[in-house]
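Table S5 (text form). Sequence records supplied for joint modeling of the four-component complex.
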Amino acid sequence: MHTAMATPAAANTLPTVQLRRISIGERIHAAGTEGIAWRVKSGAVRLDRVTAEGSNYAGLALRGDVIGAETLLFGKYSFAACAIGDCELEPWLAADKELSGESLLQTLAGAERRAADALALRAGEAFERVRRLCLLLARYCDEGRKEITIPELRDMAAITNLTEETVSRAMSRLCRLGMLQRQGRRHGLVLVAADPAFAI
Amino acid sequence: MHTAMATPAAANTLPTVQLRRISIGERIHAAGTEGIAWRVKSGAVRLDRVTAEGSNYAGLALRGDVIGAETLLFGKYSFAACAIGDCELEPWLAADKELSGESLLQTLAGAERRAADALALRAGEAFERVRRLCLLLARYCDEGRKEITIPELRDMAAITNLTEETVSRAMSRLCRLGMLQRQGRRHGLVLVAADPAFAI
DNA sequence: CGCCGCGTTGAGCCACGTCAACATAGGTGG
DNA sequence: CCACCTATGTTGACGTGGCTCAACGCGGCG
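The corresponding structure-token record, covering 400 residues in total, follows.
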């Protein structure tokens, strides 16, 4: 599936990567380096903005989202990207954009929706934030399945703007309440046993 | 200035609006209604996502940003928009996008940067958040001038995820420290007297 | 084995939320 | 013009949710 449509043999000298698999915790790219844009086929990606004062969480990318679109303009990545769940990425080609602005518009609309999601994850009570993050991951990470990979506490804390301790307590409570069920030992697979009445 | 370049007499039956002026507090559009996309020429816009549980802050748009781009796909606005500073909007035409995907790409890159800004405004201590918000507004609202319109407390509170009281205290402190200077009485013009060493 | 990274849990404290009272501006009607 | 009302902003007192600090468990790795 996903046979590549005839791409114009452009000046792009990169080898034609078809799919890129990245496991949880690995860095996808650093800020300021050269590279291409990718579409997230599965998994979750954490974006970070790098400043003089350090690196700060700056966005989330889930299935369907595009990361590194700015490379088509500047050639370099504006943000650092790190996998917070096992990821599959496919190249997002400039060919698409030449073809139809519609694809770009959809990407833009998706980015705005995702940005609103990310903002919402930083509002409300701690437990509710963590719960919504899990529901969001369950919604987007795997296709309809109930298994989701939970990111490391460090990443969940950055996303929700809580401390690791608070996130840990919230996760424990989610398990105690039966909304989540631990599968693996460490940040492993879990099952969303809870209500599908997710109001995100 | 800003003479409109010859626009193709398209099927667009809307009267050719050249510039739309909106004063602080006014609603620009509601979610779900029909309309066109706009580029913010000046001022600040608050975006809200409307759900069953109510309306929640979902994004910020400043000079150069585009709002309502999704109308080019769906015909309707996904978010509600409200001016939190006196605004000038100009129509953002589909003609641009047909012309060059580059314009769309720039809009996309800008949206991601702005989303990162919005996220950053919800991290750190209360005083620091409010200070950064003011610096961001100073940076983008008026062209290089030092006068900025301060949004209503309600909006600053929503953006920073603080309460109005806390924002009010932070603003008072900014004035006491000489970083800001009140001009008008209410949500009026203020001067940024502080260090231009803004590290946002 | 010892070390390190990550997660868990508890105790105490503080920044911020909550609640309340009041100040001020603007609008409206007389 | 004033009387009155409402919306918005200001300030204080107090309570608490989440941060801080600390100790510990556990698994992986050299």
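Note: Chain A has two domains: 20-103, 121-193.
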